[in-house]
Amino acid sequence: xxxxxxxxxxxxxxxxxxxxxxxxxxxxxxxxxxxxxxxxxxxxxxxxxxxxxxxxxxxxxxxxxxxxxxxxxxxxxxxxxxxxxxxxxxxxxxxxxxxxxxxxxxxxxxxxxxxxxxxxxxxxxxxxxxxxxxxxxxxxxxxxxxxxxxxxxxxxxxxxxxxxxxxxxxxxxxxxxxxxxxxxxxxxxxxxxxxxxxxxxxxxxxxxxxxxxxxxxxxxxxxxxxxxxxxxxxxxxxxxxxxxxxxxxxxxxxxxxxxxxxxxxxxxxxxxxxxxxxxxxxxxxxxxxxxxxxxxxxxxxxxxxxxxxxxxxxxxxxxxxxxxxxxxxxxxxxxxxxxxxxxxxxxxxxxxxxxxxxxxxxxxxxxxxxxxxxxxxxxxxxxxxxxxxxxxxxxxxxxxxxxxxxxxxxxxxxxxxxxxxxxxxxxxxxxxxxxxxxxxxxxxxxxxxxxxxxxxxxxxxxxxxxxxxxxxxxxxxxxxxxxxxxxxxxxxxxxxxxxxxxxxxxxxxxxxxxxxxxxxxx
Amino acid sequence: xxxxxxxxxxxxxxxxxxxxxxxxxxxxxxxxxxxxxxxxxxxxxxxxxxxxxxxxxxxxxxxxxxxxxxxxxxxxxxxxxxxxxxxxxxxxxxxxxxxxxxxxxxxxxxxxxxxxxxxxxxxxxxxxxxxxxxxxxxxxxxxxxxxxxxxxxxxxxxxxxxxxxxxxxxxxxxxxxxxxxxxxxxxxxxxxxxxxxxxxxxxxxxxxxxxxxxxxxxxxxxxxxxxxxxxxxxxxxxxxxxxxxxxxxxxxxxxxxxxxxxxxxxxxxxxxxxxxxxxxxxxxxxxxxxxxxxxxxxxxxxxxxxxxxxxxxxxxxxxxxxxxxxxxxxxxxxxxxxxxxxxxxxxxxxxxxxxxxxxxxxxxxxxxxxxx
Lengths: 522, 372
Prior knowledge:
The complex is a heterodimer of chains A (522) and B (372). Helices cover 45% and strands 11% of the residues of chain A. Chain A is an alpha+beta fold. In chain A, a hairpin with a 5-residue loop joins β9 and β10. Chain A is elongated. The N and C termini of chain A lie far apart (77 Å). By secondary structure, chain B is mainly alpha-helical. In chain B, β1 and β2 form a beta hairpin. In chain B, α3 (70-78) packs antiparallel against α4 (80-112). The radius of gyration of chain B is 21 Å and the shape is globular. Chain B starts with 8 loop residues before the first helix and ends with a helix. Classes of the chains: A alpha+beta (522), B mainly alpha (372). Chain A: It is a multi-pass membrane protein. Chain A: This is Spore germination protein KA. Chain A: The chain crosses the membrane at residues 308-330, 380-399, 405-423, 435-455. Chain A: It is found in: Cell membrane; Membrane.
């Protein structure tokens, strides 16, 4: 029966839809139940979690129920499938199909005609019912497996905003989206990726808001993936992004349905991967990675100020150690005299040049952070005590670093936590080190060179055709009102411009609230 | 076409703005001061028409050959051989021009910031960085220019505001003490900068909105003029008659800023502005050289030329002048009117335009005669 499996494998490589349809019906079920069982037994050989239960429908027809342990709702199978079907028939000869229609109290029943469909249905937890003398089987929608409840996402906390987050089940995730977007124009295309895992991937978009070529491009890129397994959306991200050698994320990752929905409403495409609470949003730009969903729930002035704060701290997290090094090493005249005196005083005991001092401290801090992330919770307290010693007064007293360096490292650490998305904070944490080296060798000139190199790299990036730095470069005045600032909602009349000019206006203009406007009817 | 990317007219304008102002903002005041004295702020007004003229001619030529750069249409206008020769002359002028720019950059960084660092490291770093951007293509340079310009204006504004306590109006007076002539004479030195606007003949074919090309170019000239006027005014108000003694007066002026004993020694700010601007400037010219060379050699792709050309201009820049005395002599001659930029920025295009115009007239005439 390896033939069946091989043909399944070939199927995944088929790009052509026509061929795929042919293949779906290529391994049809036999009319004979024993023959069918033989095939399925050999397919699920040594699979102790697959249960085959044979019984007789109404004392007349032989039938077989197949399900996978732990993935189907056994109580419902007992009460709604086995019990009614095993009852004696009123009449003597009865068509088992009719009986099923009359007695089976299960909401979702699909007819299946091939072994491929059998395997697909079993894998998602639906029990299969095969009848003697019938070339079609029944897939019963009684899947039920252990999943986490919808909880507040731990990675993206908000002060104000919905507290629900995506979970590991793609079905639940789509339902979270559907609960927010009631329009039938919310479309979901399902693809299966992964030779063995057969992971469900859903491309979600709103019809008429997303560019069709964009959707086509994204599905093409996903279909091109041929890999053993997809365990997390990171696999998809890495395999579909435009520039693989860039440290910058070119896809937005979120755990929050409200963020996903707001991106859908801006014409972007959300990619849901089964088995992970992290969904992907494409295309994305550099600036949208700095936006939090909360920006739109607070007053626009506060949101704008918060955004500026984030950009400020972005620069601090990238540049502060380098600036410290450059100024201490090359441009001491920039420091006010009184401060310079205390700095010189505290650096007197330190045997290293500023660059080495900064590298030691920054690497220690990164190590501490990594340790804090991975350690079991019980040991966490110990790490924080040790951490406080390592980057604290003890380090200064030991004569390893100066007071000011501790300040710099602590501030840099805090700064990198103000960036709302973890994945955009990482490249800046990483790029800090080469810039520190540049600062140590060339001073401020080196820092500027490093910055320009980063900027040049970012200018070359595109995310699914959208320039990474847009709407700043190339400049799109219309979109600037939701980039560095967050304009009031009644000003955000147009959708962000992505690739095509698609459905430009998202709301009625002139919605500024004012008591003069009075009520409608007047 | 050899360049697949497209830039907007606005991006081109901003690129040109950086290309002119980056060095201008530092070196123009003292260069002009020699002739114009306290009227240096008027000189940009007299030089501005040359910039407008350069843009106008480049645009007119672009109208005749909308999909070609000057290297290509010079062959159309003058015939293959003469066209190639003219293209070579133009490219050589550009090569030397960009090399001198890089030399200036290296010299400035070494003398002002990093006296102990070898010059080839400074120059090599900049050339590599520019090569990275040029390899990205015109789009990347356009975007970089756009990203840098708000920072530029912000820092420029901050510096001007912080210099306000140090100004004294009477240093600017009397305006036009000896009539208009000193400021007009001073403006001659500015032609070097304004003639560089001609280089837009390399960018006009790649605009998304070509009809705005001229408008944006002209606008760029005017903004450059205004920026230079502001710079010169502030420099003359701060320094008065000692302006001449500084190589880069604006930079030196920021050294005087001292507010609340905390905001002092802000020349790093000027350096940041200037470095970013110089980067764009070198990128713009570097790109022009690379594109021009590729088109002159009829290559289908210019990217393979980026590094070799970068190496060339790096070495040229190292060897540009034997010593600073020679450089000073060179810049003195340039400020007196012996300028390469004027040749490739204005004169060659003007010559091409006239030839094209005369040939066109003849063609019309012949056609008219035939019809008769």
